[in-house]
Amino acid sequence: MIVWHYKKYLNHKNDLKIQMKKSKHKDHSQSSVKAWIKGFHSAVSKIKLLQLVASYIIEEMRPVVTVKKPAFRSLIKQLSGLTPPSRQAVTNYCIELEESKKTALKVELQAAKYCCTTADIWSHHSRSFIGVTGHIIDKDNFQRKSYLLACRRMKFSHTFLDIAKTLLDIHEEYDLQASKLVATVTDNASNFGKAFRIFQMPCAVNSEDEEFLDDPLESEMEIVPLPNNLRDFVSEDYTGIMEDANQYLPEHFKCGSHTLNLIATTNAAKALEDRNYKRAYQSAFSKSFSLWNLCSRSTTAVDIVDETCSVKLSIPCPTRWNSIYDSLS
């Protein structure tokens, strides 16, 4: 009987110890959470919160109106204990940040002896853009540094005049004079080629290889210097484009990868001259294109393919490199 009471006492004591440990652990966890929240609140100032919110908007490419969303404002307020910054405050900070970053970039570009730029035009959601990057060699460690100089909308037709004016504006914005720019690299588009042939520095014109693979007519164009009566046929917006001696485009280089891609595309088309290959090609691709066209028009077809093959078909795009190859793979 005594042994039984003693065992019951030990079990009860053991249960008390377990409960005390759980209580201490719970109290410790709660105190840790409270301490973390208190430390977080005290560590974030209004300025720091503004910087963090702006950094999120920029890096995630979110619209500034995000800061007005009730869920976002609730999240920030609950985490920081501070009132979230207004849309106007975030906008003003982003503008100031852009100016400071641009100033720092100008200083670094000016410190370099030479600079090379690249340019490309593309479309997304029926809107066209031009992107320009700058590249320099660090004089201390000889490492290449690359920067995004601009990403702008290209409205209306992408004429050689529009391209030349945009490139010159971007170069001028960063104080990149013709003496510093060694070259600009673009794809093989004929409008880029014409812009450089006309607005390039006379001593830099390369007449050895002016055939643009995507436009056979361009190879017949004569390379001529800029005519004196430019104002007679250039709109008012472009009349001052060549008044400054530094307002020239640098030497033009065509992207080697794009050139090889065009060569491969041309040779692939020539392979159709073989009758046996042409027959097999037409049989296979007629079925493939029929399926691609059906999936691009019908959501039901997409669901059937997904249910049957557990995959979503990649539809070829004429302007995307290796598009057909990737779609077939």
Can you give a write-up of this model?
The protein is of the alpha/beta class and 329 residues long. The chain has three domains: 44-111; 113-260; 274-328, no CATH class. It has eleven helices and five strands, in the order ααααβββαβααβαααα. It has a five-stranded mixed sheet with strand order 3-2-1-4-5. The longest helix is centred in the first third of the chain and has 42 residues, at 2-43. InterPro entries: RNaseH-like_sf.
Task: Offer a few descriptive terms.
329 residues; single chain; 12% strand; RNaseH-like_sf; five-stranded mixed beta sheet; 11 helices
Largest sheet: 5 strands, mixed
Strand and helix order: HHHHEEEHEHHEHHHH
Total E-strand runs? 5
Poorly predicted segments: 215-226, 228-239
* Helical content class: 40-55%
Number of helices: 11
Give the strand order of the largest sheet, numbering strands 1, 2, ... along the chain: 3-2-1-4-5
Overall form: flat
Whole-number count of domains: 3
Mean pLDDT equals 80
> Structural class, from helix and strand content?
alpha/beta
How far is the N terminus from the C terminus? 81 Å
Strand content: 5-15%
- Rounded Rg: 32 Å
InterPro entries: RNaseH-like_sf
